[in-house]
Amino acid sequence: VSQSRYALYMFFSESDAEKNIYITDLMGKIIYEKNLTVTNGFNNFTINLNEFKPGPYLLNFDKVVFKIEIK
Fold first, then answer.
1. DSSP code of residue 29
2. Residue 20: which of 53, 45, 50, 54 has the closest Cα?
3. Alpha-carbon 53 to chain mean position
4. If both were cysteines, with which of 28, 33, 37, 47 could 22 make a disulfide (CB 3.0 to 4.6 Å apart)?
5. What is the dihedral of CA 37, 20, 15, 46, to 10 degrees?
6. Residue numbers in the chain where pLDDT is lower than 50
């Protein structure tokens, strides 16, 4: 039986804005990209992890880079 896997990201924004999120492999190839409309206050978004092969990735959001590991 296949299991669905998702990551939930929550963050605070001080203003309404359009933001880009993208995930790259360690070679810099963009694997996932999404435009988000965020509002003043707390926001969240989910990413379907079933689309990714196991391994390390970099999540880039609002000029901050997070290393993530998909198992």
1. -
2. 45
3. 15
4. 33
5. 60
6. none
Sign of CA dihedral 15, 41, 9, 51: negative
At residue 2, the pLDDT reads 63
Q: For residue 14, what are its two tokens?
A: 């001080």
Residue showing tokens 């998702």: 6
Largest CA distance in the chain: 42
Element (H, E) at 58: strand 55-61
pLDDT of residue 70: 87
pTM of the predicted model, to two decimals?
0.80
11 to 4, 26, 42, 71: CA distances (angstroms): 23, 24, 6, 24
